[in-house]
Protein: nucleoside-diphosphate kinase
Amino acid sequence: MIKPDGVQRNLVGEIIARFEKKGYKLAALKMARPERSHLEEHYADLSGKGFFAGLIDYMASGPVVCMVWTGVNVVLEGRKMLGATKPSESAMGTIRGDFCVEVGRNVCHGSDSTDSAEHEIKLWFPEGVCEWDACTNAWIYE
Ligand code: RTP
Structure:
């Protein structure tokens, strides 16, 4: 997910491009302006943290872009591409390492396990995702 700061800072194309160039395939994409209750459900495991209210304010402050990416080890590799949660600990070359400075404005979210990915896909895409096979030649040749 591209968080509200990533959308406001016009980083949507940059982030999508990184995943496409890595070799992952997009299975679902939408812009959403989630209710606070939806965000509270998404971050339910953090409800006891002192930063929880601020996190929900931040996530509710503007539209987000939700995506499902598929491919080999996409959850683990995708988290590496995002970088560490705290930008000060994110390696240069990662999305957070390159584009942000504060943990409370860290541009993107990625599921941290396949179980949480499955849970989050159901939460954010109850309508289901698009299954398709790449058919590059068909778009170039008749
Ligand atoms: P995310 O769920 O957004 O991908 O982040 P994460 O797994 O890398 O980190 P997590 O611990 O689940 O924290 C979720 C988000 O909460 C905000 N946060 N703020 N002020 C703070 O100390 C603090 N710590 C975490 C960040 O936006 C983080 O991504």
Observations:
- Strands lie at 25-32, 64-70.
- The chain has seven helices and two strands.
- The first helix runs from residue 4 to 8.
- The domain at 4-124 is CATH 3.30.70.141 (Alpha-Beta Plaits).
